[in-house]
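Reviewer comment 2.1 asked that we show a complete input and output for one of the modelled complexes. We chose the zinc ion case, as it is the one discussed in the main text.
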Amino acid sequence: MTRYAEKDTAITGIGMSEVSRGATKSALALTVDACLEAIADAGLTRAEIDGIATWPGERADGSGFSAVGCAAVQDALRLKLGWYAGGGEAPGQYGAVFNAIGAIAAGLCRNVLIFRTMYEATARKTAFANALLKEGQRQAGPFAWYAPYYTYAAALQQALFFNLYVHKSGITLEQVAQIPINQRRNAGLNPKAVYRTPITLADYLAAPLIATPLRLFDCDVPCDGAVAIIVSRLDVARGLRNPPVRIEAIGSSMQYRNSWTQLDALDTQAQPKVAEMMWSRTDLKPADVDIAQLYDGFTFHTLNWLENFGFCERYGAKDFIEGGTRIALEGDLPVNTGGGALSAGRLHAYGAVHEACTQLWGRGGERQVKGGPQVCATSTAGGPLAGAMLLVRD
Amino acid sequence: MHTPKPPARIPPAVDMDSQPYWTGGKDGQLLIHRCADCAYFVHPPVPFCPACEGRNVAPVPVSGRGRVATFTINHKQWVPGLPVPYVLALVELEEQADVRLVGNITHCDPAEVTFGMAVEVWFEQLDDLWVPLFRPVERL
Ligand SMILES: [Zn+2]
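Response of the prediction step:
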């Protein structure tokens, strides 16, 4: 029988820098804070870190999207590594984790430091940093097809997908609003969240319309911050400080056309096959999941993941989130318990992993889900990118 | 008060495969790569047919008609002078629905755009390129 390599790995430590709308220190300094915290949390020393990974690797384009890469962290911490990798062509942001699983299985390393650094809040103070388009410059790559059509931000492509989803599912604005309202309530109990003041349905409806049907509170919040996690070989993990958070199963497939225009199913995006792959690698079922940290670059992604993970039927998310009780901290399936990227800050799926471990280790403080959650489903990304992980407390 | 100039469209980087798509409009033609062996349209263009593995794939003029697969009405003024609202859409080509073309829907009120709406191509020159845009098909 196939032994899936992820089952021999676990998350053993987590770290998070200050998270803000304008940092008091450099992107590298934030990263060092997160990394040192994660290493110490695992009960390890710098000398025991023998692998490093990040997604999408350093992009020195001034956008703050990924201001720090492996080389800068390796040198800052003077790490001595058996393996390293940073790159964007992967199953979404969790590609770095999936790469680390492979490297551990290959015997290249035992304790991998994985980090993600965002510096978009500071970048936007000086430039229109989220522009997909730069004046006076011909647009190459997959976004060339969008270039001449005033497609200034990822929000527009997501709005194309979201609008079709609304059209097909019949979801109402009032129902969609439950996602950001729930997450802001959770963020109010998270001292590190960027925005903590509750929002109401009236606030959601009154917020600016970006591109139909996307409104301001459907979009995540650019921030400055870094997250680090340690992924260790399971036998090593069992000798460390925290109960291992085992990586029970992953979904990393590319079964659909990997395209921002020709994606097979515009309204479900790349997620269904990725979720299917994750469930095929475990005996656990959606009903076994205690909490979910679902990608929320836009509210639409969270709705999509609820359906694609099988927590509800296709186009059933509208009923699942109706009134917000089922996804609340006290509900059947608490979702994005720390406020998520919509309220806690756009830490780009690594805020979600950090929160998953926080909850599974019972460190959630005021926002801790009752009953000692053991199983968390996590997911990342939208459009043609998707990755999924099922995390289980050992 | 000074009104900022509307921003220019940003040209795509063009290579040997995509050049016909972005320049066919000079002769009023929308050019899409098609396999000469099995007639499958290959878009984005590449000289390989994923349907029959044929290598005889070349641009041919198509009807320029299609249907709105999905769209969004953009309201945010991303840069100074950007006229809003405007419609961004993915259009399914009449000849083959899995060829999806990006474009703005013009010549109508954004509020009139609907899913499945019949549209036809027109072209706007941008430097050495002709950008395909779409407008509602005239009702007869
Ligand atoms: Zn063919």
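DSSP finds 14 helices and eleven strands in chain A. We note this here for comparison with the apo prediction described in Section 3.2.
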